[in-house]
Amino acid sequence: MELIGRSSSHYTRVAQIFAHELEVPFSLVPVFDLTSTQADCYGDNPALKIPMLRESAAAEPLFGAQNICRRLVELRRARPGEAPQVVWPETLTSHRSRNANELVWHGMAAQVQLVFGIAMGKLDAENVYFAKARRGFIGALEWLDQQLPAVLAEHPPDRTLSLFEVALFCLIDHVETRGTVPLSGVPRLVEFSGRFGERESARRTPYRFDVPPANT
Ligand SMILES: N[C@@H](CCC(=O)N[C@@H](CS)C(=O)NCC(=O)O)C(=O)O
User: How far, in Å, from the CA of 120 to the mean position of ligand 1?
Assistant: First the structure.
C-alpha cells in the first residue's frame, strides 16, 4: 500500500500517524516538487494535493488525509483483534467540539497558505491575503488554547485515537518547525504537542525534507 505524500507535510503526517498507531503497513512515496502542475507528480490526484492513498496498482486512489484515516481504520477493523476506538469529528457533538474541529482544520489549511505562498511562492508576506490569514490563524490557535482542556474532557477516555488530537499535534509541531506564527501565546497547545510527541507514532514521523535519489 502506497501513501503518496511528503515527510515534511502535516496532512501526510496525520495519515502516517494513523497507519502507525493502527499497525497498517504502508510505504511513503514522496512527492519531491510541490510546485509541479502535473497530476502524475501527485500520484494522479487531479487537485495536485497530498496525501493520497493507493492500496494496490489496480485500486482506486483515495484523496485527502481524513478519507485516508477512515480507510486505515476500516482496514484495521477487517483484521482480527480488538477494534480501535476512534474519535471522529462527528463523534463529539457539542458546539465547542465542533468548533474545535473546524478551527484545527482551518489551521491546517492556513498553514499551507502561509508556507506555500510565502516560503515557497516567495510572495509578499505583508499582502492582505497573508496578513489576514496569519491573524485568523493566530486567533484560531488562541481559541483552541483556551478551549483545549474542555474539548479533551469531552473525549472518551478509552479512545485509541482521535482525529482532532492527531491533527492538532501535526499542526502545532509543523508551526514550531516552520515558524509561521508565534506559539508563545498558546502554552496549552505547546504542552499538548510535547506530550503527544512522545508517542511512538509521532517519534517515527519527524518532519524532514525527502531527498530525491541522486541522478546516476
Ligand atoms: N484537503 C486536503 C488538503 C491537503 C493539503 O493541503 N496538502 C498540502 C501539503 S501539507 C498540499 O498539497 N500543498 C500543495 C498545494 O497546496 O499546492 C487533505 O485534507 O488532505
Answer: 14
DSSP string, 146-200: HHHHHHHHHS-TT-SEEHHHHHHHHHHHHHHHHT-S--TT-HHHHHHHHHHTTSH
105 plus 150 within the same structural domain: yes
How many C-beta neighbours within 10 Å does residue 39 have? 12
- Residue 21 belongs to domain spanning: 2-82
86-129 pLDDT per residue, tens: 999 999 999 999 999 999 999 999 999 999 999 999 999 999 99
Domain boundary (82, 105, 130) is at: 82
Residue with cell 484515516: 69
**18 within a domain of the structure (yes/no):** yes
- Here the CATH number for the domain that contains residue 31 is 3.40.30.10
- CB within 6 Å of ligand 1 — which residues? 9-11, 34, 48-51, 64-66, 112, 116
Q: Which set of grid coordinates corresponds to residue 4? A: 503518496
Q: Whose CA is nearest to atom 15 of ligand 1?
A: 49
- Cα(112) to ligand 1 centroid in Å equals 7
Q: What is the pLDDT of residues 73-86, one digit of tens each?
A: 999 999 988 899 99
Residue nearest to atom 20 of ligand 1 (CA): 64
